[in-house]
Design a protein that fits this description.
8 strands; 9 helices; 8-stranded mixed β-sheet; globular
């Protein structure tokens, strides 16, 4: 299986990442990817872009087609509470092509009770601005996988298999396996991402792909393993193709 787009990455705007946006896009192009999403952290995360709304609103200055690939302007927004509130500010929403929603310990206000986390993900499923359920195998934030995977599917959300999880949150591995098994069971689409904080890691997913191979996971459920599948998703759930430069760029 070949992944053609890396749709969760960070730049130096997130102050615990180490490459510029241009370096990340260049790396994606050199890896032969067709697309990259730049998804710096929402404002409640320590190390988020200091300019906050100014930074995210001005992502519109970045061309959608650059170095021969599609560049999605986005955010990794923080899930804040059991209602599924996020820290993506309303002023920035119109400029977002791609939103990954994730739970991070510094930001989630309700602790790690399963019912609360399940409720939070229910709220996220109902939020039309969100595209991706980010690194949701974290054992600190358990939820009812069996209940929510079909909910994500029906809401058009992509469940993320996050390469960085295997090193940064290694205790999540068994949960990631369970989640992928349920995505296979319920035909829920997924996305494989690097969550790269440095350009050398863009487009590299060895452990994620090994897990999918172990599970004999259907490639047709991996949205970013095929350019036509990704394009169809973007047409259905985003406003990216309102930019006519994309057709001129050949995406």
């Amino acid at each position: 299986m070949k992944i053609i787009a890396d749709l969760h990455t960070h730049t130096v705007a997130s102050t615990h990442a180490y490459s510029t946006l241009q370096e990340m896009v260049t790396a994606a192009s050199q890896m032969g990817l067709s697309a990259i999403a730049v998804t710096d952290h929402g404002v409640e995360m320590p190390g988020a872009p200091k300019a906050g709304t100014w930074y995210f609103s001005n992502l519109r200055s970045i061309p959608h087609f650059y170095h021969g690939i599609l560049v999605l302007r986005g955010q990794e927004t923080n899930v804040l509470n059991m209602e599924g509130k996020v820290d993506l500010e309303k002023e920035a929403e119109p400029w977002m092509d791609w939103v990954v929603a994730s739970i991070h310990p510094p930001c989630f206000q309700n602790g790690g009770k399963q019912n609360d986390v399940t409720s939070a993900w229910q709220g996220i499923a109902e939020n039309p601005i969100v595209n991706v359920i980010g690194h949701c195998g974290d054992p600190r934030f358990p939820f009812d996988y069996e209940k929510m995977i079909p909910v994500f599917r029906d809401a058009g959300k992509l469940v993320e298999l996050n390469e960085a999880t295997f090193s940064v949150r290694s205790q999540s591995t068994s949960n990631c396996k369970k989640i992928m098994q349920l995505c296979k069971k319920y035909s829920a689409p997924i996305v494989v991402n690097s969550d790269s904080h440095f350009s050398a890691n863009v487009g590299k997913f060895p452990q994620a792909l090994a897990l999918l191979q172990e599970l004999n996971f259907p490639e047709e459920l991996v949205i970013n393993s095929n350019i036509e599948r990704l394009k169809k998703y973007l047409q259905c759930y985003t406003h990216v193709f309102e930019d006519h430069a994309l057709s001129e760029g050949g995406f």
